[in-house]
Amino acid sequence: MASIAVCPGSFDPITYGHLDIITRGAKVFDQVYVSILNNSSKKPLFTVAERVELIKEVTKDIPNVKVDSFQGLLVDYAKNIGANAIIRGLRAVSDFEYEMQLTSMNRFLNNEIETFYIMTNNQYSFLSSSIVKEVAQYRGNISELVPPKVEEALRAKFAKK
User: Fold this and answer.
1) Which pLDDT score, from 0 to 100, does residue 1 have?
2) Which candidate in 40, 41, 79, 129 is catalytic?
């Protein structure tokens, strides 16, 4: 049986920190679905379709990565695609309590799907999509935080505003 994992998130936008987790997860699992949660409680900069295209572009060299989006419960989505694992990244101790709550709820909803945490590389421990957007909005240097295609897309978005 193939090991299939879901790496969920809003990825608004995808950063090198996200790519670190995705790349390392792809070394462990046969198939990794990078799945964009269409979260109605957030006001994203990029549409789901734009995020899907950006992620496809920056993961195109990782053959066992697929990019998708979903609404609703993560465990339902995971079950529908045949996933038996969820990959989550941890940046700092401050992430742990929130992640523990999510994992506990997911386990309550479906105890057949395991959650695996990957600690991000130290160089990305401060990195978040929110910080990247804020720096990009004020035309700061983000070239070491996101892939060139993402930087280009951010610059284009903020040029329109």
Assistant:
1) 66
2) 129
